[in-house]
Amino acid sequence: MWAIMNILVLPAGIVHAFPLPNIPNVFNVRDYGAKGDGTTDDTAAIQAAVNAARVVKAPLVYLPNGTYRVSDTIQLCATGADNEWMTFQGESMTGTVIRLADKASGFGDRNNPKAVVLATPQPGGATFQHQSVIDLTINTGSNNPGVIALDQHANNVGVSENLLLKSADGNGYLGFAFNRNYGGTHFVKNVEVVGFSTGFDLSIRSAKSNILLEHIIVRNAHIGIYCQKRCIGIRDLQTFNVDKPVDNEDETNLAIIDSAFSYDRAGGSCGIDFRHTSGHLFVRNVSAKGFKSVVADNGTPAGGTYIDEWHTGDGVKLSDRAPDRTLNLPIKETPDLAWDLSKSVIVDCEKQVYDSDAIQNAIDKSGKEIVILSGVDRSRNNTGIVKLDKSIYVRGGVRRIYGSKMEVSFDADDDPRYAFIIETGGWPMVSIDTFKNVNGGIRNQSSKTVVLRELRLRHPFRTCYETAAEKPGDLFLESFNPVGNNKALEPGPQLIFRNQKVWSRGLNMTGVSDQLHAYNSDVWLFGINSGEIHPETWLAAHMGSHLEIFSCFMDTGGGDHSGDRPSGGMIKSYGGNISVASCGVFKKRDVPLSTLLWEQHDGEGNGGKTRTKPLLELPVSPSYYHMPFYSCSLLPADKDAIKAVLEKAEAPREAITNQVPEKVTVKSGKKTKSRTK
Question: 221-265, pLDDT tens digit by residue?
Fold first, then answer.
């Protein structure tokens, strides 16, 4: 059993310094006149760095350690502009401080609140993608009762990580705002909010979005987290002297696990005030010290002061063998990613026609542990392009490839080779992270632990990430966005796990033709955004697999639904074990996909007995179909049966050589075109 802690000890990684090197796609505020001495007004200098960064798509705006006094809002995006992929990053959470002047002009009216850092367009929307605010403190000063520390918005994966949001006098209005329409999947991790009336505002006027919070502290507030109309997942929320740790309005699909609320004042009523006419709540392993109960469900106390596992509404079980509980898979934290500039080598990707040899030499010959890719394509006002003519082999002493928001690409959109191939030997863990795009995907043919973080993957064939090792190591996905490719010759699953343990946080699979299949694997999914097209299968657990999902958002809005098949299904079990806690299916069309759940109970063959759950049988609100809980736990299969299933599964492709392949002609849709073999 996970232990409830009185004080949350955040992972050590949040206090590590993260100095960025002097490379073209890093815009250092010191280069634009910011002093960081705590007395100089640095507002104009920081804004100048941001304005300069806007002309390059996917820039990194960097604030070295120091106290940056500001008197007005730092606006990361221009009004009405997309300004995608920007990262606003300090050197360390406690060392980089943005401090608002006391009694600053414009921050005194709670009816018209104003943000210190505004990381969102006005008024918001679905095109503001992949925005990140990382590694800094925002101190909102004193006598600023109308202040918001951080107002952020992002689509298709964004990050808010390693942040301290603090009101100097304990009288701030709002710590963290993520309250504009659309938005998500957005991942908030290692954030502490102190001294605001409301810690987090996650409300919206329309649905279709999700947000995930992990390792969160809120202190001395009236409301800890305010929720409305989203799919929200919360893990490890710790509140101290917060009147309402979680305050929920209508239509929310909310899952809260492994959390603790502590209140030492008089009159604490409940930890989670779930007021609703629609929507659902799932709670697991949550305590409420000093409150009457963990949950008030429409005013009725539920569960006492500790809840082991509980949910509103009726769960879905298509088999008598299915349990009343989630699978409760072990949860591992994403490993800390090594960062030391003295052990890094920088590859300038604007110096040569193709960068493959330069990157491979840095991996094989530099003796460094970290390879940093650099470059800006000024001709296109865009992030730099890593131009490949062969695959990159990640091996030897290298344990991190840091992309600096670069884009990796072969010349041809349909080149079948992988961008990165992870080989065995050297460090037992490797991470590939912070890329705008990796066009070509990643193949892991090692037994290493692999971390894929803050990146988007494309591949012209079946999988964005492929495990090809017989005994693969653990896989960690964080703020991860595999995307489909409509040029694919045979659209198929974008993620296939075989014989593997996987922990995923913030997985966005919107627009993917066919999504995730697990074979004899344990997969823990904390938040998934899935849909907008009509795949045959969205999420599937095959024999020998365990698939546990918290906070699932599915969108039936896009694609052609005319070919809907009764055998199709959003979540499918081919003899595997599944639990889902809090799923919302966005109701955009009058005739959505017919089958939400599909189970096959007697083997994988066509003769197996199937049971289904139509989407239209779920509780419905104006925006969502709601499923608070689903379990499918089948009898364990023997080793021979699992082996047979794995042999039937699509085998990993053989590693493609780096020789220039022969050109062949194939059909792609209605057009005939050439691609490499």
Answer: 999 999 988 889 999 999 999 999 999 988 889 999 999 999 987
Distance CA 256, CA 282 (A): 6
Q: How far from the centroid of its chain's Cα atoms is residue 456's Cα?
A: 11
Alpha carbons 283 and 288: distance in angstroms, whole number: 12
The CA distance from 515 to 504, in Å, is: 14
Between residues 660 and 556, the one the model is more confident about:
556
- DSSP collapsed to 3 states, 554-587: EECCCCCCCCCCCCCEEEEEEECEEEEEEEEEEC
- Listed in sequence order, the DSSP H helices in 6-85 are 43-54
Q: Residue 364: helix, strand or coil by DSSP? A: helix
Span 492-509, average pLDDT: 87
CA distance 548 to 554: 16
CA pair distance 365, 383, nearest whole angstrom? 27
pTM exceeds 0.70 for this model: yes
- 3-state SS, residue 339: coil
- SS3 per residue for 383-428: ECEEEECCCEEECCCCCEEEEEEEEEEECCCCCCCCCEEECCCCCC
In degrees and rounded to multiples of 5, residue 461 shows phi and psi of -110, -140
Say how far apart CA 18 and CA 135 lie, in whole Å: 8
> Which pLDDT does position 1 carry in this prediction?
27
Helix, strand, or coil (residue 99) = strand
Q: From start to end of 303-369, where are the E strands?
A: 306-311, 344-348
- For residue 251, give the nearest of 278, 272, 275, 227 by alpha carbon: 278
The 3-class secondary structure across 140-190, one letter per residue, is: CCCCCCCEEEEEECCEEEEEEEEEEEECCCCCEEEEEECCCCCCEEEEEEE
- Cβ proximity of 551 and 231 under 8 Å: yes
Which range of 170-174, 314-318, 467-471 scores highest in mean pLDDT? It is: 170-174
CA atoms within 13 A on the CB side of 175: 30
Gap between the Cα atoms of 131 and 151, Å rounded: 12
Average pLDDT, integer, range 81-102: 88
What tokens were used for 448?
Answer: 């290493």
Joined tokens for residue 123? 């008024």
The pLDDT tens digits for 338-380 are: 799 999 999 999 888 999 999 999 999 999 999 999 987 655 5
Taking a C-beta distance cutoff of 8 angstroms, is the pair 153, 179 a contact? no
How far is CA 635 from each of CA 321, 599, 612, rounded to the nearest angstrom? 8, 13, 18
Residue pLDDT, tens place only, 546-558? 999 999 888 765 5
399: pLDDT strictly greater than 50: yes
DSSP 3-state of 354 = coil
Closest CA to 285 of 229, 234, 344: 234
Beta-strand ranges (E) seen in 249-364 are: 253-262, 270-274, 280-289, 293-297, 300-302, 306-311, 344-348
As a whole number of angstroms, the distance between CA 211 and CA 231 comes to 7
Please check the confidence at residue 660 and state whether its pLDDT lies above 50. no
For residue 208, what pLDDT is reported? 66
Q: For position 677, what pLDDT does the model report?
A: 31
Task: Give yes or no for a contact between 212 and 526, defined as CB atoms under 8 angstroms apart.
Answer: yes
Which pair of tokens denotes residue 658? 């780096």
* 3-state secondary structure (DSSP) of residue 308: strand
Radius of gyration of the chain (CA): 24
Q: How far apart are CA 574 and CA 170, in angstroms?
A: 54
